[in-house]
Amino acid sequence: MAEPVTVTIPHKLGLTEARDRIGKGVHMLSETVPGATMTDHHWEDDTMHCTLEVMGQHIGGKMQVREEEVYAMFDLPPLLAMFANKIKQKLQKEAPKMLE
After folding, report:
1. How far apart are CA 91 and CA 100, in angstroms?
2. What's the order of all strands across the beta sheet hosting 57-65?
3. Is 90 inside any structural domain?
4. What is the pTM of this model?
5. What is the pLDDT of residue 35?
6. pLDDT tens track for 76-85
7. Is 77 left (phi over 0), alpha (psi -120 to 50) or beta?
8. Which domain CATH number covers 85?
9. pLDDT < 70: residue spans in the chain
10. How crowded is residue 87: how many other Cβ atoms within 10 Å of its Cβ?
11. Residue 32's domain spans which residues?
12. What's the number of domains the chain is made of?
């Protein structure tokens, strides 16, 4: 069973600017999990869907861009679930850089 990791990233950029910056900075997500590679990312309305691969495992994620925050959720496969707290801490620290 997948282990969800969620992070809320507040911003004051507005929806359009935050969406643009997420689009330009999405490559930074692979740096959040050591050894991860971004294998897919695409938009559906104001939600960026992405897939990371690490150690042969797939991490599915989505980032909902909202007017004053980005809500990110990543589903960790069972093999990576034991690292959920460390991944969440890293996301909380690194994800705001996507909005810079």
Report:
1. 15
2. 3-10, 69-76, 57-65, 47-54, 37-44
3. yes
4. 0.88
5. 86
6. 999 888 889 9
7. beta
8. 3.30.530.20
9. 1-2
10. 21
11. 3-95
12. 1
Which position has the token pair 């599915």?
A: 60
User: How much is the pLDDT for 1?
Assistant: 59
Tell me which residue of 100, 92, 98, 91 sits closest to 36, measured CA to CA: 91
**What pLDDT sits at residue 37?**
93
Beta-bridge partners for 38: 52
CB neighbours of 99 closer than 8 A, spacing ≥ 6?
9, 11, 13, 18, 21, 22, 25, 70
Main-chain dihedrals φ then ψ at residue 7, nearest 5 degrees = -145, 135
Amino acid identity of 3? E
Whole-angstrom Cα distance, residue 72 to residue 62? 6
